Amino acid sequence: MSHASAWQTHRQYTVTAARWTADRWSKEADRRRTLRAARKPLVRDARAALAQAQAIDPQKVTSIVHRAERELATAKRKVPDPMWLFASKTTATVAATGYVGLPLVPGRVWMWAAVAVSVAVAGAILWARLHRPAASTIEPTAEERALLKRLQPEHWREHAEQRGLTGTLTGRPALTESGIVVAVRLDGQWTATKLRGAEDHVRALLGARTGLRIQIKAGKKGGWAELTLRTRSAADGDDLLWSPERRTLGIDTVTGEHVTVPLGERLLIAGRSGAGKSVASRPLLYDASEGAMNALVIIDLKRVEGRLWDHRARVASTPEEVIEVVDELVAELNDRLSVLPKGQDTWTPTPDRPRITVVVDEGAEVVTAADKVPFPEVDDKGKTKVLLRSALPGLETIARMGRAGLIDLWWMTQKPTINDGIPKQIAPQISVSICLAVRTPAEARVVLGEDAQAKGWNADELPAPGVALVRDGTRKPDPVKVRYMDKAVVIALPAQLIWSRTSTPATTAGAPTLTLVKPTTTPAVVSIDGTDARILDAIETAGTPVRQKDLAETTGLSKGTVSKAVKRLTDTGHITRRPDGGLTADKAA
Questions:
Q1: SS3 of 243, please?
Q2: In DSSP terms, which residues pair with 299 in a beta bridge?
Q3: With b meaning 16 or more CB within 10 Å and e meaning fewer, what string describes 39-56?
Q4: 484 - beta bridge partners?
């Protein structure tokens, strides 16, 4: 081996050793710093306990003083030396050992060992100077600098008693992309829940502004809590405008990750008026209406949001239309389940029978308005009687059974209470809850679970609009800034085929039971389509006069829907009712 190769190999070994040494030094220094910050308060507590014991038993007659002394000694042993002191002691020990032992070592060995050690030390110092860790790019604001100063253990210990927080002590605070985070040690009767109840005292001690969001939750180990001041958001600087390239629901303000909600979930979207439910739902409605395998149905009695999507979705905006479309959905669901192959858990979507997402915009209004709706029905004898019908039973059936048939229910409400905005048969079926700002903690518990407040799902503290909590069983209670999708963007989206159940029910697996029809802005005058075409086709196919009750059985439609279709066809002259009640088709119409 040449001298150059030998020098290169030696240099590589030196650099590797220096890098390893510096890395180990940094990790060990951080570990010792953390342990000292956590254990030094225990030494102070042990000293205070010893002083109290000596005051009680100055003659050391009992064992109380000896026990306190042992506890103090144990607490001191658990506090590690700083890295510089540990290194100094180690160097002094090695030097003393070398001074005594090196004279016994041959001079040649001593010389080469000294050279190797010198080179290693010099290499480690050089590498450490050239590879210093990058300084943090997060610059604290004036508000954050003031809060960081007040969160220091020294300041907290000095002011905790006068603020009613005796028995708590902070660690060293850290500034992150989502705010300031600090661990709080809890003594005596303090718990994370009790500290959360004393949030006003914490805010007063820190001098924090009223609008600053403070989160308090249990720490990583017993006796500790974690205090977070949301002075900033990980979503700051991100473009929250929706586009086909940015199709996520929003951005996590703590981690900065993009939050998505996949199709196939049964959603609950809740929030008070003005919290941004409609805006938050638009990216999800786009996904539910995009592609040949997806179809969207919107029930919107307010007639505002549904109107934006009428070129991509089947929209029902009157109580009668709501009941009619719910009847069609239930019939479609039953057909799918009846022909679902044995051993198959869910329906396989096709362009003829796609996944259907049913969105109820403002559920409280639907529960109230689409209940006991009068439906006139003509019996076989030509007599008209009025039936009172409700959409709620059908929606409950879809919520309970729709998963297997790929008919998913999304429930939106600004009144999240079990007896008002969320029916008791639908609430247990919800798999994902999206909660924007609500008025009270009770409403937050209804939407996010009874343990919402205990686990930090405090939707009543969210700012409005545009910030939500998403609970799906895996996420933490981190606020999500939802994307903004303008009304003009929705209107400009390309039209999609609209779902309608217009063909006869299938009797075998794979046979189509529906067609998709293009939306139209002008009513049909001569041509017949939809439910009317289905009724007319059934009458023509029969070849003989058909009774109205038989049409309901033949087509699979409800009696109310058949009655309305027969009335329309009779008025337009497409069918004729005979004196005995039988219906025939007028070929000339």
A1: strand
A2: 316, 360
A3: eebbbeebeebbeebeee
A4: 241
* Total residue length of the chain: 589
The per-residue pLDDT for 8 is: 65
Q: How confident is the model at residue 513 (pLDDT cuts 50, 70, 90)?
A: very low
Q: 234: pLDDT confidence band, cut at 50, 70 and 90?
A: confident
Cis peptide before 173 (omega within 30 of 0): no
CA distance 481 to 280: 9
Q: What is the pLDDT of residues 556-580, one digit of tens each?
A: 777 777 887 888 888 788 888 877 7
Please say whether the beta carbons of 531 and 565 come within 8 A.
yes
List CB contacts of 46: < 8 A, sequence separation 6 or more.
Answer: 68, 71, 72, 74, 75, 76
Largest Cα span, the chain:
130
Rounded to whole angstroms, the Cα distance separating 505 from 588 reads 28
| Cα distance between residue 416 and residue 399, in whole Å | 17
Q: For residue range 254-287, what is the model confidence (pLDDT) as tens digits? A: 888 899 999 999 999 999 988 888 888 999 999 9
Distances (CA, A) of 2 to 5, 116, 120, 527: 5, 20, 22, 96
The burial class, CB within 10 Å (0-12 / 13-18 / 19+), for 342 is exposed
